[in-house]
């Protein structure tokens, strides 16, 4: 495979429901119920239909992803990546697999851009620095697979996440 020269990984600080991308990713559980954190913000902004559509496509195994419409949000899709099971715990393997599954799905949907949050660092309790390294490394590795996807945006809500992802992006060039 050849490297996609147009492929970029960006780190931004902000609310994912305001990210500049064609689709956003929800850090989900395997049953695709939307509770608090990123899922809650997406559900509040996009409406109940996003959760109802997601639940109808579940359950899915940890590390997998499905797409739904975005309800009232301006995005083409919301991609729901199962980062944790019903125990609300995650690990490095689930985070890596969910990241790659999200990027693969965005590429299959012929999207040019997608925004992802820090997987599993809220309710899942996963360390932010470890998450940043796993997700950025997976995204950088995806550049050889991407056919349509050109921009991966990591959208971090707080300063801690933002700094951790900036550092990971520098380490995994």
Explain how this protein is built:
The protein is an alpha/beta fold and 173 residues long. The chain has a single domain, classed as 3-Layer(aba) Sandwich (Leucine Aminopeptidase, subunit E, domain 1), CATH 3.40.220.10. Helix content is 37%, strand content 20%. The protein has five helices and six strands, in the order E-E-H-H-E-E-H-E-H-E-H. It has a six-stranded mixed sheet with strand order 1-6-5-2-4-3, sandwiched between helices. Helix 1 crosses helix 2, helix 3 packs parallel to helix 4 and helix 4 packs across helix 5. The mean pLDDT is 95.
- Report the mean per-residue pLDDT as an integer: 95
Unreliable stretches:
none
| Main sheet: strand order | 1-6-5-2-4-3
How do the helices and strands follow one another from N- to C-terminus? EEHHEEHEHEH
Number of strands: 6
Most strands sheet: 6 strands, mixed
Rg from Cα:
14 Å
The CATH H-level homologous superfamily: Leucine Aminopeptidase, subunit E, domain 1
- The fold-level CATH name is Leucine Aminopeptidase, subunit E, domain 1
Number of helices: 5
Alpha-beta content class = alpha/beta
CATH architectural grouping: 3-Layer(aba) Sandwich
CATH class descriptor name: Alpha Beta
* Cα shape: globular
N→C terminal distance: 18 Å
Beta strand %: 15-25%
**What is the helix fraction of residues, given as a range?**
25-40%
Please tell me the total number of domains: 1
């Amino acid at each position: 495979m050849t490297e996609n020269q147009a492929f970029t990984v960006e780190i931004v600080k902000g609310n994912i429901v305001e990210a500049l991308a064609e689709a956003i990713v929800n850090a989900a559980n395997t049953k695709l119920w939307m509770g608090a954190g990123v899922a809650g913000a997406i559900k509040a902004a996009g409406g109940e239909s996003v959760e109802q559509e997601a639940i109808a496509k579940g359950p899915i195994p940890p590390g997998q992803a499905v797409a739904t419409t975005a309800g009232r949000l301006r995005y083409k899709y919301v991609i729901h990546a199962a980062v944790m099971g019903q125990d609300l715990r995650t690990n490095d393997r689930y985070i890596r697999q969910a990241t790659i599954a999200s990027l693969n799905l965005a590429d299959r949907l012929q999207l040019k851009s997608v925004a992802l949050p820090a997987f599993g660092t809220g309710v899942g309790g996963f360390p932010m620095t470890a998450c940043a390294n796993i997700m950025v490394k997976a995204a950088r590795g995806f550049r050889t697979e991407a056919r349509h996807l050109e921009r991966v945006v990591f959208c971090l809500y707080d300063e801690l996440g933002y700094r951790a992802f900036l550092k990971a992006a520098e380490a995994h060039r």
